[in-house]
Design goal:
With 332 residues, this protein is mainly beta. The protein has one helix and 18 strands. This is Autotransporter domain-containing protein.
Length: 332
């Protein structure tokens, strides 16, 4: 009996050490999708991140090809400070709250973009999110995945173009209250870790009732479902307390419809935007400085491939490259 107990204890200790590097998820740390997640042995954790967006590109030309890429001259860079906190609610679930503060920079005058710059300090839309573990990994079967259900709510509180708060430098939000749900599969025990996550986002209808153009009022705005797919591979160098992950993000935003009314004649019309598709690749390097402290470095290449990918070809979307560094602290 004592020998069996010793063997079980050793296995648990070994699994606990391994789990620190094996536990993650396909959507963990991929751009801003999920900046903070809690491992099973963590109850309260905070995240502090800095990121820089650059190389803004637009896909699509009004009245022309929807896949042609050209430089976005309205905004040149965005710097973000991201603060998040996570709390474990049960053995298999936790919630997180994320806030963002930003600095946008672009030309002061679009007609003469080389003459002077404009800087705006803004706050982003907060995100309340949660995850629930349906299935956990285990040493008894290294090919059994971790399966998580995930959900989030993002209210529209940041300045945005739907509410006509200004141009690209003056705004940051998409203007919609949104809820997201999805599922995340992660195989973290094999030597080559891999995973896939699928999310669906629903946008609530808006009634901005503001001027859209001369003599036209935007009285309603809707957006169809948004689909986000994340594919991830990685490897944990356990002896070095270091891990690498890389993957792709496929983001499809369905049609957005603008309902317009002529203020003089009361005639109504509709304007259709999209659908839009963007494809990004990302790479993360994570270093466990101590059992409580983690450093993460990541880079995301927006609009990574300009060629023809059929339904997944970049189109009618604005993309940018993102470099980020973050520090995570587990308190208990």
């Amino acid at each position: 009996m004592k020998i069996n107990n010793i063997i079980k204890t050793a296995a648990l200790i070994s699994f606990g050490i391994s789990a620190n590097y094996s536990y993650a998820c396909s959507s963990c740390g991929s751009s801003a999708t999920s900046p903070l997640v809690l491992n099973p042995n963590e109850n309260f954790k905070m995240y502090f991140g800095l990121s820089q967006n650059s190389n803004y590109m637009n896909y699509g030309i009004p009245g022309g090809s929807k896949t042609t890429r050209h430089v976005n001259k309205m905004i040149t860079s965005r710097r973000s400070f991201i603060l998040a906190a996570g709390y474990r609610t049960t053995e298999n679930s936790f919630v997180t709250l994320t806030g963002t503060f930003l600095q946008n920079q672009g030309p002061a005058d679009l007609s003469t973009p080389a003459e002077g710059t404009k800087v705006k300090y803004l706050y982003g839309d907060p995100i309340l999110a949660g995850r629930y573990n349906l299935l956990n990994m285990g040493m008894d079967n290294i090919y059994r995945p971790q399966i998580q259900l995930l959900g989030s709510y993002k209210p529209s509180v940041a300045k945005n173009m739907v509410d006509k708060d200004g141009g690209a430098v003056d705004t940051v939000g998409n203007g919609f209250h949104q809820v997201t749900s999805g599922v995340d599969f992660w195989w973290g025990m094999p030597a080559i870790q891999f995973g896939v996550a699928q999310m669906i986002t629903y946008s609530f209808d808006r009634t901005p009732n503001n001027n859209f153009a001369p003599d036209e009022v935007q009285y309603k705005r809707t957006r169809d479902l948004q689909y986000t797919t994340i594919l991830t591979v990685g490897h944990a160098f356990k002896d070095l307390r270091f891990s690498l992950q890389a993957g792709v993000i496929l983001d499809h935003i369905s049609k957005e419809k603008i309902y317009l009314k002529n203020v003089n004649t009361d005639e109504t019309s509709e304007k259709i935007l999209g659908p839009a598709q963007s494809n990004s690749v990302f790479a993360n390097a994570k270093f466990n400085v101590t059992d409580q402290d983690t450093l993460r470095f990541s880079y995301t290449l927006g609009g990574a491939y300009d060629g023809n990918l059929g339904a997944f070809t970049n189109s009618k979307q604005t993309t940018s490259d993102t470099a980020a560094v973050s520090y995570e602290r587990t308190f208990f």
